[in-house]
Write a structure and sequence with these properties.
The chain is α+β, with helices and mostly antiparallel strands and 107 residues long. The chain contains two helices and six strands. The strands form two sheets. It has a four-stranded antiparallel β-sheet with strand order 2-3-5-6, covered by helices on one side. The chain has a two-stranded antiparallel sheet with strand order 1-4. Helix 1 packs across helix 2. The longest helix has 16 residues.
């Protein structure tokens, strides 16, 4: 994933994106409404992700896949950790259109 130096001393990034998946348990499509909170490492070694590349990962690796909410959320977090090496990252998925009640998962 392309990234660039945190030369602006960015302390917090909040990134939001949606993604449709298929739940293998409920046998129905649902929408993850991801909220990603990234605390980049400080300069000179900290990196900021290319947001278009996060979109691309979601589109190519999560969209339309058979994944439970927890797995989709975990995969997105792991990708950011592996590629960006932030000080801290939290990924939340809110699902309001599944065959069950509304669920929010945070990893």
């Amino acid at each position: 994933m392309p990234k660039f130096q945190n030369s602006y001393s960015v302390q917090k990034i909040v990134y939001k994106q949606k993604c449709r998946c298929f739940c293998p348990i409920g046998k129905a499509d649902y929408t993850n409404e991801f909220t990603v909170i990234i605390e980049p490492a400080g300069a000179p070694n900290g990196m900021i992700p290319d947001y278009c590349e996060i979109d691309k990962f979601i589109r190519e690796s999560l969209e339309g896949e058979s994944l439970v909410i927890e797995e989709a959320t975990y995969k997105l977090k792991q990708k950011i950790i592996e590629d960006v090496h932030p000080r801290k990252v939290t990924v939340e998925s809110a699902v309001n259109d599944a065959v069950h009640g509304n669920v929010v998962v945070t990893v």
